[in-house]
Amino acid sequence: MEDYTVSIDGLHGRKIVLGVSGGIAAYKAAELTRALGRMGADVHVALTEAGERFVSALTFHALSGNRVWTSPWDERMENGMPHIALGRGVDAIVVAPATADLIARLANGLADDLLATLCLARDCPLLLAPAMNRQMWENPATQRNVARLRADGVIFLGPEEGEQACGETGPGRMLEPGALCEALVAFFTPKRLAGRKVVMTAGPTFEAIDPVRGITNASSGKMGYAVATACARAGAEVVLVSGPVAVPTPAGVRRIEAASALRMRDEVLSALPGADVFIAVAAVADYRPAETVGHKLKKSGAAMRLELVPNPDILAEVAARPDAPFCVGFAAESHDLDAYAEGKRRAKRLPMLVGNLLADGLCGDDNTVVIYDDEGRHPLPRAPKAFVARQIVEHLARLLPTAAG
Length: 405
Ligand code: PMT
Fold this sequence. Notes:
8-stranded mixed beta sheet; alpha/beta; Rossmann fold; 14 helices; 2 domains; binds ligand PMT
């Protein structure tokens, strides 16, 4: 089972009709149903006759908690018209898997079963996750149908390349449930940062003493990666310069590895041209060893002195540039958050800084932050980092037009 904890937000209150047509990838639709439900969506499954050959209606009923619809003649719907009623008040119809046959029927406006009729009678967005053999996908007839549906405003999620159930390898694999959930959250996120380029740092730095030892800190990268995810979902082009962390790269984000502060500075400066925003979430080591020894140091039993020299302050350097983007700093403090955080904001002349209380520890899943800007302090309630990140991005987007525009 995939881990959806990174994206457990964003679908609360959403009503989604999940169409399932007849392909072997239908088994993934069962997992998708559960994942969407865990992310807060109210999922109603419409199953084609062929889809039901792969996974039973009972499975989808159990996983969604809602009755499953298979026939346009189903009399359980109060007005006896599930093909109309089921599609009303819905935020999106998502078809996963969408077979070549279903795509062909939709492209031609057919209404020969419940799912096709629902799609034709919809008044909400339609998203299709194709799944088929690579040659079926590449066939000019399928490509014509896809182009026609795209022109009609239908959104395609995938397919991806890879090993197929038939044993062949190529394009046509349905996206995994986690990727489909992520794509849906991104779809519903207002594109407040569309057209903006965001350069960011995240994670700790590692300042090498010798080839196997170094100075680092407990930053997990979770906060920074959550901010990168929120920026990407909000439509930004995101370049994430990251210290060593074990967090997967968020969808739609370009990640550049930079272990040390010096390397992080270089990577930030080369990514900076064209940036509208710079967000410094990284816990950058203030000092590094004056010298990195080229071989593994041997234990001698005697006391050892390590000379440290200051690292460049990446955020201060970027914020001081004449062409500085809109700069957002972070500050982690164990006490006197207001004084220290606002002090750092003023010292580095930042329009916005996010202060976190270390009460939550560095690498936990939740955070309690206060946003500081020229208007004052804006405390946010303690929440999972994904929620906090979304609010930070909302705040940033509100300040951007005046500050950078
Ligand atoms: O990664 P997590 O486990 O989720 O934890 C997230 C976090 C606590 C590390 C993060 O939310 C955070 O607060 N990061 C900033 C940590 C800090 O206190 O930084 P600072 O006070 O040393 O620096 C202030 C600001 O200047 C920060 O934006 C920092 O990225 C930047 N800075 C600092 C030093 C330096 N040499 N270069 C910098 O760019």
